[in-house]
Amino acid sequence: MATPSCLILPDDLRLEAKSWLACGASALLLDLREPRAGAVAFLRQAREFAPRPALYARLGPLEHPGFDLALESMLEAPPDGIFLDGAEGGASVQHLSAKLAIFEARAGLADGAMTIIAGAAGTPAAIFTLQSYKGCSPRLAGLFWEGAALARALGLDGWPGVVPAPLAVARGSLVLGAAAAGLPALDAPSRHPNEAAEFREECLVARADGFKGKLATRREQIPIIEEIFAAK
């Protein structure tokens, strides 16, 4: 995934797809972990533009009760790929890949057309499977950091100041696992989304730590991400 910036679209999609496509992000991410009005219409409209950012959907973990239903809802307007929450190794990616092969056949897409970006460190168990991503599927295009999910799993919600050691170890392990698999690692959304200076510093730290891009929640974050992670 050669995309340093990925904008998570807001729940309210009142703006036309063209407006979001022009935001400058390398990719756009629709969060469909809960049913969302207008999502399929947005994808249908967005797919008509070229060139455009890559279009991704986030459906939750594979075991989420609404995962298959959300995937089915996009049959007439498929995204370019899926952000997979809560992956625990290459087996999770292979499981999703099998689902996507069936989906692609029904949607009239070429086999392998859809890619996967895996959240690979959202549980304690996931940390011990990072070595299994190498060569697990040609669909796998990157890993993303699920720091908030891991913090909840460890009971570390709301920690101030210095990052707790388990989270720091997991974050570094994700970058190492991605590098070992020849994949880019994407940093989580900012904990300070409204503060430009703090956001820029987060991006600089993430790039120094080995991340190749970052998720964004606001349009104004996109130029900062593109500037910092595209820099040589």
What is the residue-mean pLDDT, rounded to a whole number? 92
> What order do the helices and strands follow?
EHEHEHEHEHEHHEHEH
List low-confidence stretches. Answer: none
The radius of gyration computed from the alpha-carbon positions, rounded to a whole number of angstroms, is 17 Å
Largest sheet: 8 strands, parallel, barrel
CATH 4th-level superfamily: Phosphoenolpyruvate-binding domains
Structural class: alpha/beta
CATH class: Alpha Beta
Query: Helix amount, in percent?
Result: 25-40%
- Strand order in space, largest sheet: 1-2-3-4-5-6-7-8
Classify the fold: give the CATH topology: TIM Barrel
Dominant shape: globular
Total number of domains: 1
**In total, how many beta strands?**
8
Label the CATH architecture. Alpha-Beta Barrel
Structure overview:
- Helix content is 38%, strand content 15%.
- It is an alpha/beta fold and 232 residues long.
- The chain has one domain (5-230): Alpha-Beta Barrel (TIM Barrel), CATH 3.20.20.60.
- An eight-stranded parallel barrel has the order 1-2-3-4-5-6-7-8, surrounded by five helices.
- Helix 1 (17-21) links the parallel strand 1 (5-8) and strand 2.
- Helix 8 (196-209) packs parallel to helix 9.
- It starts with a strand and ends with a helix.
- 43% of the residues are buried.
